Amino acid sequence: MLPAHLAARLLEQRRAEQSAEFARQLPLYAEDMPLPPDGDDDGEAPRALPDWATNY
C-alpha cells in the first residue's frame, strides 16, 4: 500500500494526463451549421418559430 502523499501525487498526475488527453481530442474550432435551403418558395410569409419560454 502506498503512503498517502504518494497516492495523492499519482492520482493528481493521472488526472492531469487524462484531462490533457481529453483536451487533445477536442476540435480546435467548430464550423457553424449551414442553414437548410428553403425548398418551398411559394410566396408565403415565413413561419415564426414557437416561443417555448412563453407558449407551452
Summarize, please.
With 56 residues, this protein is mainly alpha-helical. It is built from one helix and no strands.
Q: Major sheet: size, sense and barrel closure?
A: none
What percent of residues adopt helix (DSSP H or I)?
25-40%
Give start-end ranges of low-pLDDT stretches: none
Q: What fraction of the residues are assigned to beta strands by DSSP?
A: under 5%
Average predicted confidence as pLDDT: 78
Structural class: mainly alpha
Q: Write down the Rg.
A: 26 Å
Report how far the terminal alpha carbons are from each other.
58 Å
For this entry, give a set of tags:
single chain, 56 residues, mainly alpha, 1 helix, 39% helix
Plain-language structure description:
This protein is an all-alpha fold and 56 residues long. It contains one helix and no strands. The protein has one helix spanning 4-25. The longest helix has 22 residues, at 4-25. The radius of gyration is 26 Å and the shape is elongated. The model has no long low-confidence stretch (mean pLDDT 78).
Write the layout of secondary structure elements.
Elements lengths: L3 H22 L31
